[in-house]
Amino acid sequence: MIAGIISRETRGGSENVMLKGGWGDHGNAFGLMQVDKRRHTPEGGWDSEQHLNQATGILVSSIEQIQVKFKSWSKEQQLKGGLAAYNMGIQNVIRESTAIPI
C-alpha cells in the first residue's frame, strides 16, 4: 500500500516534483508520499525514513478516523475511505464509493 501511494504521488521519486526540493502540488505537498503542509508539518528529507514514518502515521490515522466515522462500513470500505482521506482529508469523505478498486 505504501509503495502504491509513493508510485501514485511521485512515480516513486522520479516525478519532476523531486527536482523541486521534494515539493509538489503547487508547493503544498512534500516528499515521496506528498505530506500536505496545510494539514501537517513535513518531517525529514523528501526520501527519508523520517518522512516515510510520518506519512505512514498519517495514513494509519486516516484509516482509524474513517473506521470511527463510518462504523457500519466493511473493513474494505473503511480502507478505501482511509486511502481517500489520506489524499483529500477526513472531512471530504462523505460516502462509500465503488469507484476505488483494491
TrEMBL record:
Record keyword Hydrolase present: yes
GO biological process: defense response to Gram-positive bacterium; killing of cells of another organism; peptidoglycan catabolic process
Gene3D superfamilies: 1.10.530.10
Any one GO molecular-function label of the UniProt entry: lysozyme activity
The EC number(s) this enzyme carries: 3.2.1.17
Record's keyword annotation contains Cell membrane: no
Family listed: Belongs to the glycosyl hydrolase 23 family.
Protein known as: Lysozyme g
